[in-house]
Description:
The protein is an alpha/beta fold. Helices cover 38% and strands 18% of the residues. It contains 30 helices and 38 strands. The chain has a 6-stranded mixed β-sheet. The chain has a 5-stranded parallel β-sheet with strand order 3-4-2-5-6, sandwiched between helices. Helix 11 packs across helix 13 (342-353). The longest helix has 35 residues, at 674-708.
Amino acid sequence: MPQDTLKVPELSLIILIGSTGAGKSTFARRLFRPTEIVSSDACRGLVADDENDQSASKDAFELLHYLVAKRLKRGLLTVVDATNVQEESRKPLVALARQYHVLPVAIMLDVPDAVAQERNAQRPDRRHLGRHVIASHRQQLRRSLRNLKQEGFRHIHHLRNVGEIDAIQSIVRDRLYNNRQEETGPFDIIGDVHGCYEELRALLEKLGYQVIEEPMTDVRDLGVRVVAPLVVLPPTSPPDPLSQKEGAPVMHQTESPGSPSPRERGPGGEVTRKAIFLGDLVDRGPASPQVLRLVMSMVRDGTALCVPGNHDIKLLRHLNGKSVTINHGLAETLVQLGPEPEAFRSDVRRFLDGLVSHYVLDGGKLVVAHAGLTEEMQGRGSGAVRAFALFGESTGEIDEFGLPARYEWAREYRGRALVAFGHTPVPDAEWLNNTIDLDTGCVFGGRLTALRYPERELVAVPAAQVYCEPVRPLNYKLLAASSQPLASLPDGQNEKLTASSYQLEAELDIRDVTGKQFIETRLMRGVTIREDNAVAALEVMSRFALHPKWLLYLPPTMSPTETSALPDLLEYPAEAFAYYQRLGVERVVCEEKHMGSCVVVVLGRDEAAIQRRLGLVGEGIGKCYTRTGRNFFTDAALETAFLARLRDALSTAGFWEKFDTDWVCLDAELLPWSAKAQELVKTQYAAVAAAALAALPQVEAALTEAAARQLDGVEALLARTTARHQAAAHYADAYRRYCWPVYSLDDLKLAPFHLLATEGRTYFDRDHAWHMETLRTLALADPGLLRATPYRVVPLNDPAEVDAAIQWWTDLTAAGGEGMVVKPYDFVPQGKGGLLQPALKCRGREYLRIIYGPDYLLPGHLDRLRQRNVKAKRNLALREFALGVEGLERFVAGQPLRRVHQCVFGVLALESEAVDPRL
């Protein structure tokens, strides 16, 4: 009975082969999605308006190959509908499959010549075809059948007649062996073991696993059993459909039975952790058979995954009878395997032979491979992928130690997935561009290291001894960075060299921030950065900003309230309260708005903390920078004193111990305003006031004399001039309130209002009242420098509390205060429609003179200003807020500098959008 299904790999290039009239297009339309089919006839139609114009074939096939390449690049199954009966027509398609590391599949539709001729005769556009064309196609098809495997096809389906073709009712898409995206962890990813059994056992026990040795009563027994620890994780959420980007591994759901399924959760939401071994289980160490028994047992019981290393594959080749060079520790492994029973050696052979080159896990967010894997190879299947996963990529040269010089692929890595790998021993696990090398040279006397995922925590145990002297020292990079032996370096120089991996991450690529950008964020689906805005930001960042490693966060702009209808008032708290109440917010926090400069402070407990966390050497214990990433201080001595005093205040308050951190990021206001805006005050505000107060009294005197002569219209002009004179005086009083001379550190005041981040966490999940109280306690440690921000919590369903808050604002502004900021109680406010405004500013009547000019309350001016539209400003505030949160969360999560900088740069780019700066 003819089969009714065909199996193909879920990611493959399917090449239909058959003569004209064989039914390829009908077959494709029946079994594949329309978007998956690339047809040569359709391409002729696109380039020539005629699907049968053979003169357009060259252009049509250029287009076909282009479309196939684009789909394969994006990881999409593709079907080529063309005759493909000649080897030269299949050759470029197979080459594309190799280029994009997908599997080529041949489906041959072999129908009798008479059937093809009859079908063509029924189509007006094919009636002219001679019998010789179909005969020639069939002959070429038959010849091709013998050579398809040699051409590179690993899956060949030969449908020998119409009955077999029509019997096919479905295509089963077999999942690739490396596709484990449904497994979300938690995982413990363990670096190269190399026969170090005691260290492996100690590491597993440190990770919470129970290693139980058992008697071997049967040749199938492995003598060891491992029980994985249970942990409780929050419920998983479905993947964001917009989280994929071009080049990221795209895995479509397989329809084949027997696929692995996600681990079920217990009644309390608990799941077992799973170990992942990065290969090189054997060679050099004292106990390779014991390591194999343990790992094989864990993989068999479902408590571990394992990818092969190059040493494992070399052992496999030897066990399979292949000729290999007995070096690099293989001799020791073979001696250790000598006393083992043949049944165990057979089990080892089957185990190693079944290992998959790499795995893609957790929805494409994690990739594990022995030697790493570039983005375009992740989730693909080819010999080149397997070779890279085992060996990495060599430059073709030999280094000074006689070993192959390897291409450092991680320097150029820009992928979304975290790649955990080993293969190259290093003194410490190295993070670089969202990749981490976990081979810390245990067999060479270093450590055996594991990465906890998704926690991104490192756990390690030291080697009991040096089992093998390395040909290339573990610290050879540090030795190469110095012309003298490492042991002879002056004190402190050693630590400076350990920042080398951060130096690599400092090499930001301009291509990451230029052009149109789409930045995915947790709070918004995505934020678009236009190319012209990116150009403006690049100018500021290149010429004026601090070193990018300092710029963890840029604060968002803030929208004002909607316009008030009250006389002589442009902004009023009632509009802010009404906005939030309308969107379902029950409580808000009202904070006094300081008239200073908005700053971000990144501060370490000492320089070592800054070097460790930011990779900055010799740049002090911190920085205080503005909303545009520029250093606030121009006086280096004043900056040093300010940061040291703030650090001491944190120490006095017990901050470092309470938050278990050695660095902090604060959002704050630095007073006075004139400390940073001195030139602005002199050239803009003071100049306007001085000119007005010098000229208007003289104009007023002249008009008074004219009015005494009772000239027509002078009274009205005099009244207007007198009002302008008074307005200019109020204007001067308004800005002078926020200016005082800064001669020393004692003249500065810092008012922090957000504790943004410390080691290992951000504080966006804490409410604003918590932030206010936490920072008020901090301010008590040094009242001379730090100012606690007055605030009040207002339940919006309590009219008395709302009235009291409005009166508080009235009193503040009447006394010369700038106004207040109204924030939802929750730091990240969400409503039915998504993210809400994180804050609204409500500025006082007199303060707004500084913004809109002395005459803004005069007749006509205020009516015009009431027409202002805050919609664009609010949209901008939301996007900048989402980017700011995203960037800082990426930093705390240990993501590479370029990923953090992408968000920071995005905020700066958005600042160049055409929005009224007075809002």
